[in-house]
Amino acid sequence: MFFIFSAMASDSDPIIFRQWTDKLRGELSVETYERFFGGMELLDWSPDRLRVSFPAESDLPKLERLYGGILEDALHELTGKEMRVELLARDSSPAPGPAAPSAREPDGNILPGIDINPGYTFETFVEGSNSLYAVAAAKAVAQKPGGAYNPLLIYGGSGLGKTHLLHAIANGIRRSFPQKTIRYITADAFRTEYTDAISLANQANDRNLIREMDDFYRNKVDVLLMDDVQLLAETQGVQVQLFHIFNALHDSRRQIVLASDRPVAEIANLEDRLVTRFQGGLCLDIQPPDVETREAILRDKIRRLDYPLLLDDAALRLIATQTPSDVRSLESVLRKLLFTQTIRKTPIDAAMIEGVLHDFPQGTTLRVTAGAILSAVCDEFSVEEARTLEKGRGTQEVAFARMVAMSLMKQLTNMSLKSIGDFFGGRDHSTVISALRKVEKSVQTDARTRSGVERIKAKLR
């Protein structure tokens, strides 16, 4: 695939530049992007080079050293070409090309640190059966911080919406309780705060510098939102500091919300007393979205794009079933489709979609047969296949295996409700719907069912 770029900025360059900066926001933390790249502007393109400018005071050698590889890798993933990224300083006069969104001034009740994204609200979160309970709890916290769900811990894989929900909580509290101060921070940034305080205290021989950090959280923070708490692993001094801050906030009924990529009990070398406190409130997981939810996410993302992207239902289903089931991957596919359409100047068709999807790992939704699903389910639950196909309900074990098979057929194939019912001896669609609901509830509430279903999916890959 070849991409042709003009020597200077063209009409399509703002689109490409926006896609590139959007991708960088996904690769870097919000704090890092806004701090170092919030003032970045496009200068021009050439066939093998992208030039961007930064404010005169920027430390360009440091940016090149720390982030040059990330900038070029992100551009390569978008264009399919090896392109060099040149960083240039600019004077006070405006540079040509569109400016990326600049860092926002912190709101009155958002304490300095990592900014809250105003676009991450409950209204912009696409809710599905995979996130139903987590969203409900997050909304309850935003409506009554320091209430029943304190602390609230949300865990799940990367790209499933945990950070979005933390920002949505902050935005909700900001609107309803303008007097409350909010601190959003990642565990990594908290660790950096602590190690910097220790370093400065040692240099100045003044332990008050450490107490200042402690006093800041104890006296100025009404709502603490901490992301990526799995990064607290093997940081004993940081864990001690957080333990005391946690107790002070919790004892005074101030809200704490945590997000992790795994249950806290599975975080290596996390102190038992922190595990106990983190689990002392409400712990909820977010699962990967099913096909229907992924389609809804795609429609929502397309609706919010600044540029037209026309996809019919068949195209949406193809993308939803063949893309990894995290939101970031879905967004990445849409960005690359938009980029390819812009460069080729042709409508999106199945061949273009297949070409874009070829660069992504196969999604969790697989092209498997109903028979393969039934075989894997029966093997997992030690049930004879023939028993699940009989007219009667059968034993509890047989009935449950049949329901799980129906659920997976709906998720992993294009079978209709009627065809699934026909597969199981002519059962009507209402029976299938009932089975889907029961399995969905069991997966959300029962860890053994959830683990069993994940093992079945793994076997089918």
What does this 3D model show about the protein?
With 461 residues, the protein is of the alpha/beta class. It has 4 domains: 13-89, DnaA, N-terminal domain (GMP Synthetase, Chain A, domain 3); 132-286, P-loop containing nucleotide triphosphate hydrolases (Rossmann fold, 3-Layer(aba) Sandwich); 291-357, Helicase, Ruva Protein, domain 3 (Orthogonal Bundle); 370-460, DnaA protein, C-terminal DNA-binding domain (Chromosomal Replication Initiator Protein Dnaa, Chain: A, Orthogonal Bundle). It is built from 19 helices and 8 strands. It has helices at 13-27, 30-37, 60-79, 132-143, 162-176, 187-204, 208-220, 236-251, 272-278, 291-304, 313-322, 327-344, 350-357, 370-381, 385-388, 396-412, 417-423, 429-445, 447-460, and strands spanning 41-46, 49-54, 84-89, 152-156, 182-186, 223-227, 255-260, 282-286. The protein has a 5-stranded parallel β-sheet, with helices on both faces. It has a 3-stranded mixed β-sheet with strand order 1-2-3, covered by helices on one side. β6 (223-227), α8 (236-251) and β7 (255-260) form a beta-alpha-beta unit. The chain is globular and about 80 Å long. The two termini are 29 Å apart. Mean pLDDT is 80; it is low at 1-12 and 92-108.
